[in-house]
Fold this protein.
Amino acid sequence: MLSEQHGLYPRGFSSDTNWIWPLVPAKDLVTLNYGKALRESDRNSGDTPVYGTNGRCGWHDSSLTKGPGVILGRKGQGPLGVEWCDKDFWVIDTAYFVTANRSDLDLRYFYYLVNYIGLNHLKVGTSNPSLSRDTFDLQLLPFPPFETQKEIVRILATLDRKIDTLRKQNDTLEKIAQTLFKHWFVDFEFPFDFAQGKPSTDGKPYKSSGGAMVPSELGEIPAGWHFGDFDDFFNLFSGGTPKTSIPEYWDGDVKWLSGKDVTSHNKNFILHTEKQISELGLQKSAAKLLPQYTTVISARGTVGNYCLLSESMAISQSNFGVLAQKKEHIFFGHLLIGNLIDKLKREAYGSVFDTITTSNFKRLKILIPDLFTLTTLEKNAVNLFEKILVNSQQIQTLTNVRDTLLPKLMSGKLRVGDSQNE
């Protein structure tokens, strides 16, 4: 960190960076403006986004300021958000909105730069740490010529658009899979060939077309279906943590999921983890490698978040791994677990933090359909989830490219013309 006289060196850049562009105090470039309180009960239905310290927190029918613009989180224990909004927006009093102090600053450039540097390290205080304007004013920011700023933004925005498109595709694919599961296995409207008396790939919907329903211990179900125990269909895996006091157990090649990892990838594939352990750490702890496509569920603290393993990984003891016993039922099993998550969360207990235990899983009753219907759903689900995984891998690649280019472009180490050939 440089002295206060000079300002705060930008985090994320090497101290020996050979800056091509001048480092300018943030106060020379922007002003941070306080937001205005807007309680949820005072918000009217509308399409104006409302932002707080952690990002968008609701909608309203009027705006506080014109867009496009940048919103910076101001206070709170969690990470402070750095947001870009293309339209008019409202900012509540836990965040700032940014106005440019000079005409040769591209606000979108400012957004990319501050989003990369981050804000959390600038917070002060303990009970409710906050970012003061005086502190932010001292932040040094690389300031290239205006045309260079715009070209940097064009490059980074192009990557962001590709990432956003892939994320939207994944959201759509996930919703299709969930809708298909609910339609077939909750509403019992799977296709059925009534002339042949068996499931079909293009027949009429079963229940609404008069399909035979039979009583069961948990209500009416389609004829030929039955309830089984959790252990009849799934394998359940627990996790473990190598001793943190032994360095040799850590920073290896084995990806290891904490509860935080699961929460940050809720309902998505997980491709990377915050921490990795060594083969020795794996051998010397209760952790074990779980197969690709295992569903991992957070069992302590913020319980009930879940994700899919993109490859074989280990998990901590604050998570459970769940996998269908037969590989040809894996994605049906994942969708089934997603349908049972609310029940698991309701049954979680704890005096301070809720906890899902092994017994919560063992008490679950699993509705098992006829083999043809299950297999047909699985074929559809495989196509959907394999596409989601490919998209997720592409998102990771594009994100890595963006995050690698950004500091080089911002420092001037990589000139805009050179980046076209990267």
About this structure: The domain at 1-143 is CATH 3.90.220.20 (Adenine-n6-DNA-methyltransferase TaqI; Chain A, domain 2). The CA atoms of residues 299 and 356 lie 5 Å apart. Confidence is low (pLDDT under 50) at residues 1-5. The chain is about 35% helix and 20% strand.
